[in-house]
């Protein structure tokens, strides 16, 4: 799963009057030394596998796009095998493209799992769109191939555009979190990612607040939106979030800088049901259908306001502690 030698692409045949994805075809371009056995792949998906000579990432992307084009896919989604997306990534990304409408979409690289050091990092800002999260209409890329390189191979697509934000329709990491996995072979430099450590979901200062973006990642784990994989990156992220949540809870219990007042908002962000509403999104999915729309709230829910927000600090902290024990 975390072999950086491979690039995976999905071709989607989509009825544009709907936000539901119809047929999904998976095209695998593999330039690792040894070919995989067909029996290793899921029989539930339409998978076409190609074992090719060692080549650049750009070349593999072009080969995969060409195969998706031959299949008549209307939407093409890039899916590198060393990055971990939520199980509802296709539905979330395509629904936004249909609603806006947009020809291309990219997802902000907001969370980085570093395998070499075993740490979870955040990323500042949104640099040029990273090709590993592209989803685009087939007609949009015709005649504009990726460059023959393994670093910034998608930059050539946006060279003549004055406003790539408008063209790429970026989605924030808060809306659609995923784990960008860094290995010894990763090509993206630090000055592009601008990483910094994950320390807390509480932001201090005179007007303390919660880090909604980081809590969105915690919510994705809480709702079981990430696939069930024996991946070190998932272990790193889950462990880091669990540690931060424990430290935050201790701060709120001690009421350092009045952080305890943030407990109701903190709890709400772990269970937010309306995050999907922005920009044409659909309700967050999950491997566990019971968790797709929301996470069940214990009986203390009777102290919530009309919007479902827990309004009593002590109750919110008890619920956070319960969530942490199940995390």
UniProtKB/TrEMBL annotation:
Domain Glycosyltransferase 2-like residue range list: 23-110
InterPro entries: Glyco_trans_2-like (IPR001173), Nucleotide-diphossugar_trans (IPR029044)
SUPFAM superfamilies per record: Nucleotide-diphospho-sugar transferases
Pfam families: Glycos_transf_2
Protein name per Swiss-Prot or TrEMBL: Glycosyltransferase 2-like domain-containing protein
Taxonomy, superkingdom: Eukaryota
Organism: Durusdinium trenchii
């Amino acid at each position: 799963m975390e072999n950086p030698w491979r690039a995976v692409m999905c071709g989607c045949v989509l009825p544009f009057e709907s936000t539901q994805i119809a047929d999904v075809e998976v095209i695998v371009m593999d330039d690792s030394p040894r070919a995989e056995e067909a029996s290793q792949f899921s029989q539930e998906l339409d998978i076409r596998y190609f074992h090719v000579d060692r080549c650049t990432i750009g070349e593999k992307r072009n080969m995969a796009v060409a195969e998706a084009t031959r299949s008549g896919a209307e939407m093409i989604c890039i899916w590198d095998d060393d990055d971990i997306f939520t199980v509802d990534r296709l539905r979330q990304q395509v629904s936004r493209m249909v609603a806006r409408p947009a020809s291309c979409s990219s997802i902000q690289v907001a969370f980085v799992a570093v395998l070499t050091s075993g740490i979870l990092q955040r990323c500042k800002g949104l640099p040029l769109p990273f090709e590993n999260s592209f989803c685009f209409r087939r007609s949009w890329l015709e005649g504009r191939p990726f460059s023959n390189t393994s670093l910034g191979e998608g930059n050539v697509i946006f060279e003549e555009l004055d406003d790539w934000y408008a063209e790429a329709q970026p989605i924030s990491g808060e809306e659609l979190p995923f784990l960008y996995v860094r290995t010894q072979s990763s090509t993206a430099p630090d000055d592009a990612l601008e990483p910094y450590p994950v320390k807390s979901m509480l932001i201090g200062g005179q007007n303390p607040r919660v880090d909604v973006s980081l809590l969105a990642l915690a919510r994705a784990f809480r709702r079981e939106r990430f696939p069930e994989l024996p991946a070190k990156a998932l272990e790193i992220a889950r462990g880091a979030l669990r540690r931060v949540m424990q430290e935050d809870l201790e701060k709120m219990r001690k009421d350092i800088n009045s952080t305890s007042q943030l407990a109701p908002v903190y709890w709400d962000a772990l269970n937010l049901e309306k995050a999907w509403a922005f920009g044409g999104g659909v309700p967050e999915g999950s491997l566990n259908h019971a968790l797709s729309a929301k996470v069940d709230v214990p009986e203390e829910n009777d102290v919530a306001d009309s919007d479902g927000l827990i309004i009593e600090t002590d109750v919110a902290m008890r619920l956070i502690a319960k969530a942490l024990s199940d995390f």
